[in-house]
Amino acid sequence: MRLTDLIAAVNPFARLSTADAHCDLFCGVYYPEQARIEAESVLNCSVKYHDSDDEVFRDRCILVKEERAELVKHHLWVLWTDYFKPPHLEEYPELHELFWKATKLAGDAKKSMDPQVGQDLLDAIDEISVIFYKTKGGKPEWLTS
Amino acid sequence: MRLTDLIAAVNPFARLSTADAHCDLFCGVYYPEQARIEAESVLNCSVKYHDSDDEVFRDRCILVKEERAELVKHHLWVLWTDYFKPPHLEEYPELHELFWKATKLAGDAKKSMDPQVGQDLLDAIDEISVIFYKTKGGKPEWLTS
Amino acid sequence: MRLTDLIAAVNPFARLSTADAHCDLFCGVYYPEQARIEAESVLNCSVKYHDSDDEVFRDRCILVKEERAELVKHHLWVLWTDYFKPPHLEEYPELHELFWKATKLAGDAKKSMDPQVGQDLLDAIDEISVIFYKTKGGKPEWLTS
Amino acid sequence: MRLTDLIAAVNPFARLSTADAHCDLFCGVYYPEQARIEAESVLNCSVKYHDSDDEVFRDRCILVKEERAELVKHHLWVLWTDYFKPPHLEEYPELHELFWKATKLAGDAKKSMDPQVGQDLLDAIDEISVIFYKTKGGKPEWLTS
Amino acid sequence: MRLTDLIAAVNPFARLSTADAHCDLFCGVYYPEQARIEAESVLNCSVKYHDSDDEVFRDRCILVKEERAELVKHHLWVLWTDYFKPPHLEEYPELHELFWKATKLAGDAKKSMDPQVGQDLLDAIDEISVIFYKTKGGKPEWLTS
Amino acid sequence: MRLTDLIAAVNPFARLSTADAHCDLFCGVYYPEQARIEAESVLNCSVKYHDSDDEVFRDRCILVKEERAELVKHHLWVLWTDYFKPPHLEEYPELHELFWKATKLAGDAKKSMDPQVGQDLLDAIDEISVIFYKTKGGKPEWLTS
């Protein structure tokens, strides 16, 4: 038996997960990975900015980081509004604050070239991801294999 | 004396408002009107859909409504994440739920052709707008004149 | 009786306004405020650029101003092409030049860090807005209240 | 001697054309072809719509036509605002009306499935293109060869 | 020892992977998951289209599928052009054809409501993903844990 | 007889060209000119960057070049995936490599301020354009006249 099956068996949200898939024409496809991948880019932009003394390269780091941080915000907002439902908030009332904090961090990551902000953003997304996968009953096999 | 002057005189957020302007490189320019204007389009799309029996026109109502509702969500999310600060949440703890409800309504407005949903969305934005302008000490003159 | 009712009573474009709502699937929702709000951002970017000596912040001022000025141009262009009709041009033949001048100013505002250009852009939009609301019979109540 | 050289020799706008290249950071690259190519797509969408009885295909015709017509408007607006200068308007005072008419036609082409509207749009762009190339002293060789 | 360490130890592309990270200001962040997630949406749109007899819902399935399929194409193209280098092509000469086939399938998935096309697209992306992770020395831990 | 007629008479792809028009709802409208026009902007940005010592102007050169180079990549990718068919690849097997090289050059043009890279990009697009027009039986008259 796979780990995902075990989690699915004891998942109080199993029935809700099925319902979720039909709540948004977006076909119920949600992955915190979308936000985290872009956040990885944000962090890398900050790191590379400090590793270079090429003025043009450093300018592009600022530019690309701005775009990627905006995408992080978008993916997080969609997860917050479109995926999570009232029963989830009852189980995890901290969700609003977690999303608010994470999206604010993405904004900070636009303003700052400090890699620590990028790392804090990744950590904030991971916090959300843990809760997300608890409500889903684990990660899908195609992702972990 | 205008109404806005009275409100500004007693606004506990006056100092915060000034600080806000420097928190986000977006130059502190926030207006719930941006979301409300697009929500007006969303409502009109639903109304016109029912007023027409032209298949192509009705198709375009669905298409344009989808785009405008997405813009409503974006403007609301930006207001929630970029404008409101912790002191605001202490004064108005219902803000997270109001934004969550409003953005979910924008999603519903994509799915539904019922004008009532579009009206509910406008009402939800107005609720947020009332709080927003309390924190700002009233609307700017250029908007109301 | 509200101010808007008085204006509507004597508005020679009243019948046209109703027709406008059906001319563009965009449901006849037009607001010069959309352009003006983004222009406020453009001005703020120029102002803040001069108030800071942080190289990264100044870079982002240039970047954000570029985006916002592009949005100003878009909103103005849409107003020009989609809202104004031949009868309006007969009443206000200067409209083409006003829009041409305003959108060119938005382009100048991309190139210049001089706040005066941003202020000129706001003034140009206000000129258009005055005419716009004459043709509409005044601002809607939700905006001014 | 190439045709373009002959035209350039007698072109009253020769000096202006060089100046144009420095007026917009967009590096002075303007081509009515950008608008015309998208307009060709718009026309084809209308034509194919009538050639098919597949409901899904016809839906996509409406959708793609909407996107392409929006691009036509954008390219025309940019040409109007960013390329043409006051001396051009003195020589060709009809330019404002030509652009206004063409962009309105692009809007009509969104609403209508009638190929004639798409053809009218192409013709309107060609009218602008003729004037454009008179001010440029002819088409560049890479385009015509 | 983790699986990824084992793979990294024998990975002939280890040195190249590090170099990759510095080839594109995008900070070397590439994930086939980005394309696959959007492809999952595309498949779901087709499935739900057949499960519903609501005309508006079915219209939105077509619309959303169009957007998501476009994103699939974009993510795949970026992976092809920005991640893969000549040494990869020497090791896996079939890469051009795999990407060409996959992006063409994404185009087919726009045109077709047949879920099989969406499934073929997922399979095509998985083929690319297998090669991709061979060149990377395995999936990162944050993704699989 | 025009040059295009001669080419069309001996074009082995004539029948295929007609079929192409129906392969993609995009109505079979493809033009390498779309990529080349944006590439001209990319080159100009690099040239003007060196001609100026204005810090803000130079920053905008980097910014605009980034956007235009991205558009070059997009237009090329669409041409590669949506226009070219297997019979074309049999006749011109070098197409995959040509597109791969050209899109990589567009990426290089984002990173580099060296006009030579911009020129190389134009040359790469011209190589593709030559093959493209062989398969089409020549340029359309509206483009060359």
Order of helices and strands of chain A: HHHHHHHH
Proportion of residues in extended strands of chain A: under 5%
Question: Spans of chain A of 5+ residues with little confidence (pLDDT < 50)?
Answer: 1-24
Radius of gyration of chain A: 17 Å
* Total strand segments of chain A: 0
Average pLDDT of chain A = 87
Shape of chain A: elongated
Largest interface: A-E, 28 and 28 residues
Describe this structure in words.
The structure is a homohexamer of 145-residue chains. The first copy, chain A, is an all-alpha fold and 145 residues long. The first copy, chain A, has helices spanning 3-9, 14-20, 32-51, 55-83, 86-91, 95-111, 115-136, 141-144. In chain A, helix 3 runs antiparallel to helix 4 (55-83), helix 4 (55-83) runs antiparallel to helix 6 and helix 6 runs antiparallel to helix 7 (115-136). The first copy, chain A, starts with a helix and ends with a helix. The interface between A and E is medium-sized, with 28 and 28 residues.
Task: Describe the secondary structure blueprint for this structure.
Six copies of one chain form a homohexamer.
Chain A: H1 3-9, H2 14-20, H3 32-51, H4 55-83, H5 86-91, H6 95-111, H7 115-136, H8 141-144
Helix pairs in contact in A: 3-4, 3-7, 4-6, 6-7
